Request: fold
Amino acid sequence: MSIASHAQPAGTFPVSRDAEGTVSLECLHCGTPVDGDAKEPFCCSGCSFVYALIHAENLDRYYELRGKRGVPLFGLFERSRDTKWLEPIEAKLAECEGTTRIDLDVQGLHCVGCVYLIDTVFRKEAGAVQVVVNPALGKVQLGVKQGFSLASFVEKVERFGYRLGPPVKSDGQSRRTSDLLVRMGVAIAIAMNSMIFAISSYAGLTEGFLAELFFAINFGLCLVSVAVGGTVFFRSAWQGLRRGILHLDLPIALGIVAAFSGSVWSFFERGSSSSYFDTVNVFIALMLVGRFLQERVLERNRRYLLASDGTESLLSRRIDEASGKVGVVPCSTIEKGDRLLITPGDLVPVAGKLEGASASFSLDWINGESRPSRFEPDAVVPAGAFLAGSQAITLRATEPFSASPLVELLRSPLARDKHGPRTGWFWQQLAKWYVTAVLCLAALGFVVTWLRLHDVGAALDVVTAVLVVTCPCAFGIATPLAYELVQNGLRKSGLFVRSPGFLDRATTVRRVVFDKTGTLTTGTLKLADDAPLSALDEGARATLYNLAARSHHPKSQAVVRALGEDIAFDEALTVVEHPGRGLAAVREGREYRLGAPGWASSKADADGDLVFAVDGETLAVLSTTEELRRDAREEIARLRNDGYEVWILSGDRDDRVQALAEGCGIEVSHAKGEQGPKDKAAFLREIDRADTLMIGDGINDSLVVEAAHTSGTPAIDRPFMAARSDFYFVTPGLRPIRLALRASHRLHQVIRRNLTIAIAYNLVAIGLAYAGLMSPLLAAIFMPISSISILLATIASLSGRRAPWKS
Reply:
């Protein structure tokens, strides 16, 4: 299929404007900004492929259902997928009769268009009965009959950029959000009805049976609201106190308790004239809305990816010595001496001695080495390597899985935000001072009123009024709304926040540290110079394409990408792979080779690392190099202009790391190579003063991202990394990182301004309460006005064309 056939002229690209009015082109598939000199209207090859595929399959309605914005598909097609998890499910399916239910997790669901695509693909499969796709949970439930090919369905769905896996996503977070949604709905219903009953009192109905009935109903409604909604904050505040943490649920909980207690006292002792039940109900409803906003975006971001359960679901193929049969087993059962079958693209779970022929393995997850390494027979292949060739090999395990370094590197990640959504110094200090100030002002009001009037009831009225009107709406609802606006904006820019505390920690970042392979670079190789390919005649180009297209080796794939997809694939050509050396084929009586210089041609130029030859005569000498992310140089320069130190911390060879640093404009002294996982973590601890952002993507980065003050990853095809990071991004470029840092500062500017407004409001309200002028009616007016004004100011500051993620 030719992708280019769906390209449009540059003049017809979709366009957008940033805050300065600069026009930028947009990707036809996802809407991500595209380079101005792009030849096709796509941000990456993944979007280009899927756009063409959707049109070829007559699934254009996807774009109608989805809307303008989608998610970039960068990097989803670079490495062959491990599908061993399918084999046990298919074996079970083959044994079942009638309709069988299959539950799967899905990565990449974000809209009704995704549901439409998966539903349509499923219904075209033989044996398909029913499918239920749940974008909110990132799950799909299939009802199938015998004869249904699960592997075929998975392969077709994954062509569109989704990823399917076994059902390991936890429902705990979903149940918590669902419970919160129910509580919020009850609280809002109570608040609305409570206001209706309170209106009669404000209108003058203060005596008689009907007035007492309405007061009693409001008391009952408030009791239910506190029991249903207030307990969310009581529980959270108590858990924080038990851990010695003061977070903002504490003033909310105290406000609810104090206002409700004061209103109950007034209800039973003073004939209900000073009860604030309706205000308490509205306050609880608003706080629950804020909490729901706070949880919703983060849950969606977590559900977008496949879940990581460490090593629990890691599988491998083990060869039974007695029968010779191959079975898929959990890696945790591998013992020393076991024979393992490793197929192309498979992860090596334990160190093992290579049997049979030599083979090439990619070590980029282990040490960041961008180029595959060749291993000879009897050499020990390290755990964490990937088979880069196109032929399966066997390994003899030299250690049990319990001794594999993968166990430590893939262990369950530590929670960064154990004590609530905001546990940073700023929020702890704010909560402490707010609670202290409100309690002191309430106590002062009691003392002053009692000394002035010698009336305990009047003094308690002042206390109740102070506790009610000092509404923490600025951070109970306006702050969660601000966080949601920022997180949604970053999501549209391709960055997904996973950790609630990231946007707080990001304000203290002064240093950004990048891994190299897969982070600053795309993780793939490209030809340093395409000129040798241009010198080939049409027949030689076709032969070279057919040799390279039959190999998963990164160097072969670099040749395929350089040649393009206009060359026809020759199914009749027989290609032989010589592990560790290259590929060979005989065509029209002549032998063509593509591979290592000394093997493909004895006359090869030593400067190249890949040679294409015929009958020993060199046709082309090729050199491969790493491909930088498209905006790496520009974004590093912008980060430095914004005042950030930029470092590279990599396991790759030191000379390559420093060469890349020079090319990106990073000081050579800030580029550290040949760093193992523990070395990286130790180095970061030395330089980190709660001010370092680490960006990494490989298994060798799992320790360092946990050690960093805050962290992110581009590796959405590696859920174990996202599970350890505060955010992940899916764009071809690095721009979302800078936008996230800028957005965090804008967010805190808005929060500080909101707090200033809240302090001014509270001072006026407390003054009225001290003067004895604060009534339930005035409180019912004051609190909504203050809340609405702060909400409108928040929305105006964090939306529109001047939003920080549009800069």
Notes: The first helix runs from residue 45 to 56. The two ends are 37 Å apart (CA to CA).
